[in-house]
């Protein structure tokens, strides 16, 4: 008997065989934006194994509703637990959001998977929080019931974010003009994801530039980060400075919500491409909790650079459910 796991993102569909003991064996990669559907890829993969899997767990980069998902960055890929089960001859199928899978991966995190910014690279069976800016802002949490891990999925990337100082007020006014749909209520608050994501950063950069009476010639997140790192664009430098401070603050806030003594883990493409952003100022912003500053300082804080967290999370779900 064998089981199937998959990590389905906007570029690739990675499929893997898992033994009855939970060991990840053969892997195969398919293009997400090609003509092949996930159902067809799973059938081809299963046929090459010589039999259909007993179970399948899929980590998908999109919002999962009632077991169905439309990928965020691949309009041609939509699937459901029902369609996959039918394709796989009645196999039991579970579809996880990608950050739900990321949280599941923390059940087996090790020192080799992290760069520790605060605390130690130790992983007690206490609540853990993971978040990561990418196309959106993904958030997930892992809690323990004795020795049994459980994941709490959610949409923490859509919590409220607003100006922290008077100097930031014009930026948020301009941000609400740039992207009215992300405004929350009548004031200056926006969704955190509107700023803390690859999608939102170019708009936030334009808002920062407008507040400083500067031009905004850059139009994608990678260029903004590169210009900020090289100190070539004043608005980019300010936008990335605030991006880091806000990301740290949201991480600290959510860490308090879950009492994340097992660790707060920052991951995702933006973090992986810009490790220079996670400096002493980032840790200070994470810990800036007023009367609970000392409490935040007790939360371990890590950069999580496990590239296979989708597959590992799917495997961990299989083993524990």
UniProtKB/TrEMBL annotation:
Keywords, comma-separated and alphabetical: Kinase, Transferase
Q: Which SUPFAM superfamilies match?
A: Actin-like ATPase domain
Q: Which InterPro entries match?
A: ATPase_NBD, Bacterial_glucokinase, Glucokinase
Which top-level group of life is the source organism from?
Bacteria
Instruction: Give the protein name, as stated in the record.
Output: Glucokinase
Q: Does the entry feature the keyword Cytoplasm, yes or no? A: no
Gene Ontology cellular-component annotations: cytosol
Q: Mention one GO biological process in which this protein takes part, according to its record.
A: glycolytic process
- Lineage of the organism: Bacteria, Pseudomonadati, Pseudomonadota, Alphaproteobacteria, Rhodobacterales
Record EC number: 2.7.1.2
* Record GO terms (molecular function): ATP binding; D-glucose binding; glucokinase activity
Protein family? Belongs to the bacterial glucokinase family.
* Organism this protein belongs to: Tritonibacter multivorans
Which residue positions does the secretion signal occupy?
Answer: none
